[in-house]
Amino acid sequence: MSQTLLYVNNTDPEDGGGGDRRLFEEAATLHEKGADVQVVASRTDPELPQRRVSNGVRIRTVKCVPDFLQRAPTLHFYLARSLFPLVSLPILLATLFRDNIDVIVDNHTPHPSLVAFLGPLFTVPVVALVHEYHDRSAIEKYPLPVGVIQLLVQNFLRIRLYAAVIVPREQTKEALREYGTSIPVHVVPNGLDVDTYLEPPTTVSAESFDFVVVSRLVHRKGIDQLLEAMALVTAADPSVQLGIAGSGAERDRLERQAAELGISEHVTFLGFVSEERKRALLHESSVFVLPSRQEGFGIAVLEAMATGTPVVANDLDIIRRLVPEEPNRLADASDPEVFATAMMDVVNEQRDGERVLAHENQGEAERYSLDRVGEQATSVYDQVRVHT
């Protein structure tokens, strides 16, 4: 049975982090399987077209703040996301009037829109796509206003506002059950087009780094912690190089931090990179590092694993359940000495073995193919339609 799906996201899905990419990849996969898919999102990147079709998915972005605020990227980014729930209401109403939508998917990255209040007016079920359960530590991991908002709006999951909830892991489902979520909660892991990562792309080339990280440059991703560890690594081995791929509100501050630590010559800020260049970077670099203070799933780790690249990551429970013990290392990223030691251990092993592929990593990544994930998501949306 074909489906007509509306995804709602407070960040442009081609300009966000792992949760935003998860939405877009799922949408594109379901389009390939015959679904009619569209996305309404905040216009967080004014340089991207406001209306476009990407991989068969129709994307409409909503301008929430003036473009001139782009001069203050942190303010522009957070205002665009925060105002989206209100500013998007007329667009969402018009979409629901115009189109015969079967299921709405409200992506919590990190907070929801207000579409769950509109769905019942049109007898359209709304599914919450939730990437993590938030406890009081959210106030430390995110900017204070964002952390507080997340804790408040998480209550939406306890008042039967949604027809169902999708989470990426069984542990998140258990946490929401304990929290008091009584609506159906389904586990659908994040997916990856594994085949595209197995071999390096032939159309682009990339620099080779000892360490590489692909991440949005925001506080919870812990790049500041990585730079502290990198200062110790370069003191032990002045030849090492770190590549940081990704854009974000904290780039200027992180570049200043690198300069203050005296490691600017060892750190290259690459900015936004295309999907192909990202895959090339992962293949060419010796070790992938993930210093995040928090992760809902860890799709960036899965991407690195699919290329056979060893991983050094912050010792988070969610990552511990994803990454094989060897040849990877999990270490406390808040302790620069501990994390630096793990980084050096793995890069030295790679040098000794002349860049041996981590086949255990590739085997684990293959469990999360997009085809498999798409089938699971389709099944959930079919169930929701039947019971509405």
From TrEMBL:
Superkingdom of source: Archaea
Glycosyl transferase family domain residues: 207-351
Polar residues composition-biased segments: 1-11
Region (Disordered): 1-20
SUPFAM superfamilies: UDP-Glycosyltransferase/glycogen phosphorylase
Glycosyltransferase subfamily 4-like N-terminal domain residues: 17-195
Keywords, sorted A to Z: Transferase
GO molecular function: glycosyltransferase activity
Cited Pfam families: Glyco_transf_4, Glycos_transf_1
PANTHER family, per the entry: SULFOQUINOVOSYL TRANSFERASE SQD2 (PTHR45947:SF3)
Record-given protein name: Glycosyltransferase family 4 protein
